[in-house]
Structure formats: C-alpha cells, structure tokens
Amino acid sequence: MQPEPHEYLASVREPMQQAVELRRRHRGGWQNWERKAFERLRDLIVGDAQLSLALPQVTTKEDQIVWARSPVRLDLAGGWTDTPPYCLEYGGKVVNLAANLNGQPPIQVFARVIPQPEIVLRSIDLGQGVRLRTYAEVENFGAPFTPFAIARAALALAGFIPRFHANGGHGSLQKHLRNFGGGLEITQLSAVPKGSGLGASSILAATLLAALNDLCGLRWDKNMIAARTLALEQLLTTGGGWQDQAGAIYSGVKLLQTYPGLRQQIQVRWLPEHLFQAAQLNHRVLLYYTGITRLAKNILQEIVRQIFLNSPQHLETLAAIGQNAEATFEAIQRCDYGALAVCVDRSWKLNQKLDSGTNPPAVQRLLDRVQKHLAAAKLLGAGGGGFLLMFAHDESHAQEILRKLTRNPPNPRARFVELNLSTTGLQVTRS
User: Fold this and answer.
1) Is pTM beyond 0.85 here?
2) Which residues, at least 6 apart from 236, have a Cβ–Cβ distance to it below 8 Å?
3) Is the dihedral of CA 154, 155, 161, 165 positive or negative?
4) 254: left (phi over 0), alpha (psi -120 to 50) or beta
5) What pLDDT digit, counting tens, does each position of 317-350 carry?
6) In a 10 Å sphere around its CB, with 0-12 CB exposed, 13-18 middle and 19+ buried, how is residue 24 labelled?
7) 252-284 b/e with 16+ CB inside 10 Å = b?
8) pLDDT averaged per 10 residues in sequence order, the chain, 431 residues
9) Shortest CA distance to 59 belongs to which of 212, 220, 217?
10) Are 131 and 120 within 8 A, CB to CB?
11) How far apart (Å, rounded) are the C-alpha atoms in residues 405 and 274?
C-alpha cells in the first residue's frame, strides 16, 4: 500500500521552506537546503525505480541490430500538471499528440552486442563517440551536459551498474559484460534542434531504454519505460514530468492522465484524429521552428520550488491548466476546430501566467506579424523558444503565414517543418 502523498512529500517540503526562510533573511547556506529538497525528491522517484532491479541478458542473435525509433510530442494542454511534485500530490492531465517530422520519426537508437567487453556510444547528430570500460564511466551522468549523459543513465537503469543490477553487479564492468554475453554498441540520432520544446531529451531517454529493454530481455512494458524515463531525468538532475516520453511512446492524439501517488500509472484515452489528419496538418495547423532556444531546467526548478511551498497562485494556475486539458479533450472529441483553438489559446495564456519567460519579446514580435491570421498559437513545451504550433483561421490564412515567415524569417535558423501524426508511437524492431 502506497503512503499518502503528503506523507512522503513532507520530507521534501521541510528543507525547501528552510531554504526560502534563509534566503528571505539574506543568510548564507540556503542553497544547501534547497539542494537537499531536490535530492530528496530525486531519491523518492529513483527509489521507486529501484524496487524492480534489472537483470540484463542477451536476447539477440550475434548479427542482429535492435532499432528503436520515436516521434516527438506536441503538447496542446495540461503541460506542467505532469511534473513532480504536483502530479504526485494531485495527479496530472495532459492532451498531446505524437508527430513525425518531415515524414520520419526523428529520434532513433541502434543497439547491438559486440565481442569486446566495453560499451561504445555514438551520436550521429553530434558526430561524437565515447568508450566506457568502467562502472565509474557509466555512472558519470550527474551533470546534464556530460557527453552521452542520457545514454549512461539509461545503461545504469538497465542494470549495467551494481546498484541497479538484480545481483549487485560483477566486480568490474568488464566482468559484468563478459557475464552478460558481450559488450554493447549504441548509436543514437536526435534530428531535432536543441531546446526545441518537443520533449526530445526525454524521448531520447525513453527510446534508449526501449532499445535496451528489447536487447536485454528486461520485459518492461510501455508504462514501465515511461516511469523509468521519469527516474532517469531525476538521475540527470534535470527533473521533468512524464508527458514528453508518454506523448511519444503512445501514438496519435490522446489524453494522458495519472492519479495522486508516488507510482504514476499513466492512463491513455485516445481521441479522434480528424483535426490532425493530412487535410489539416501543414495546411491549417503549422509547425514553425523559431530558431530561439531556452533550457527548460531553470524554468522547471522555479516552478517546482513554488509547488513545494504550496504557492496559492501557482497551485491555482496548475489546477486551471488541468481543467483546460479536460476542455481540450472535449473539443477534440467533438471535432470542433474553433473550440480547440480557444483551448490552445487558453493553454498559452496559462503557461505565461505560470512563467513570465514563456513568451520572450522575440517570439511576441514574430506572433504580432501574423496575429490577424491566427485562431491560436503556442510555443511547445516549457516555452521561451523552440517550436511554435500555429492554428490558422483557415487554409488561406495559413498560406499568408507561410508566405510572410518564409520570405522574412526572424533569424537564419527559423523555418517551417512538415509534420504528420504518428500512428505507431515508439517502435522497436530487430534486423
């Protein structure tokens, strides 16, 4: 039986309140108390993942390659309600859709067993590679900018370090890999700009975990992969919610919902796809990369801080965001484009209320240029930059938006990107 949310969150709130009081009095040491609060939250979530330790075993033939690929996530409403500690205490509700970019799932992972007792990590988009030969090298994922931090953390959760291995490991990584049946070669591709707002980091984590799950016979279902991705982000200290990975793992348009509790079991309610089929996407609903980036970690930490402190303004806004997700669900259920646009516009305004940096001046200037053609628009993810999802009044207005922003983009990186609804979500196959 799980404890009540307030019971385990009390241990997190106490140091956060201490940090705020010291900071208010301009006294030193508040950073240590705040760090302790985030560490306790991380330990709660990661500890839940450790309840089921991994026992990786080779399940592929010697010449087989495991190929995992995922779409990205476009969030329409409910974002932030999926973020701990809010979702642990109140549950979360998010409406989003899984989308391919330019006809392809943009996040892909290839994994195979190799004879050498080492782990080789490669990135196609970064043009980088690294070889891991010790447990310490695998476990070097604490800073999010460490090369291959996400892949290292995924390997850890898959049982390639002692604390996540069911039998406690094998003394050294080389012995561990020999016992496993060989080394690993993992190649990753994230064909999405950094700071995109499409959930790419979380989705890459889920795709890596899915590839390792298949290769190593871990028997994780989709919900378990989503939960371990949540734990992985805590290991990286970036934090984050569950909607990014769940939005890509599960296909199509859907409402994702959880209830209060440490173990977030995601329930999926699929929606009609009529408003997001080929006749609408790229003709009336447009995806535009603004060329502006912003790291979500700093935004996330401030909002989490206010949730810890039971800030009435933040909790009220988050409750309204959850209610808007329900309204968005109803609008899509009725296939009502006008009502959907109203909900997306409300979602954008609520996100700005939660974080004033969501809509920077450069983005507002871009929106001002096409405002008369828009029924609604919002930056995806945490906002502040990345991709902008636009709902035009009709196809002729969409053509005007395309013409204006293509002829005179706000910066050299800005561009329209073709999207189509993913009817598969996360896929894993073998050669």
Assistant:
1) yes
2) 141, 142, 144, 149, 150, 153
3) positive
4) beta
5) 999 999 999 999 999 999 999 999 999 999 999 9
6) exposed
7) bbbbbbbebbbebebeeeebebebbeeebbbeb
8) 63 80 81 83 74 90 96 97 92 97 97 97 96 96 84 96 93 96 97 91 97 97 91 83 96 96 91 93 96 71 82 94 98 98 98 91 96 97 93 97 97 96 97 96
9) 217
10) yes
11) 27
How far lies 94's CA from each of 187, 258, 328, in Å?
A: 31, 9, 9
Q: Of 191, 186, 201, nearest to 103 (Cα)?
A: 191
Q: What is the pLDDT of residues 361-383, one digit of tens each?
A: 999 999 999 999 999 999 999 88
User: Closest Cα partner for 399 from 289, 288, 284?
Assistant: 284
The residue count of the chain comes to 431
- Listed in sequence order, the residues at least 6 apart from 7 whose beta carbon sits closer than 8 Å to its beta carbon are none
Q: What is the pLDDT of residues 392-404, one digit of tens each?
A: 999 999 999 999 9
What is the DSSP code (8-state) at residue 372?
G
The beta strand positions in 228-359, using DSSP E, are: 253-257, 267-270, 285-289
Q: Which two tokens stand for residue 240?
A: 């984050």
Torsion from C-alpha of 142, 144, 149, 152, nearest 10 degrees: 40
pLDDT in tens, 90-112: 999 999 999 999 999 999 999 99
CA distance 166 to 220: 15
* Residue 224 tokens, joined: 């378990």
Bridge partners of 269, per DSSP, are: 255
pLDDT in tens, 18-36: 887 887 787 888 888 888 8
Distance (Å) of CA 143 to CA 25, 233, 274, 297: 30, 11, 42, 12
For residue 121, the surrounding DSSP H or E stretch is strand 119-123
Question: What pLDDT score was predicted for residue 27?
Answer: 82
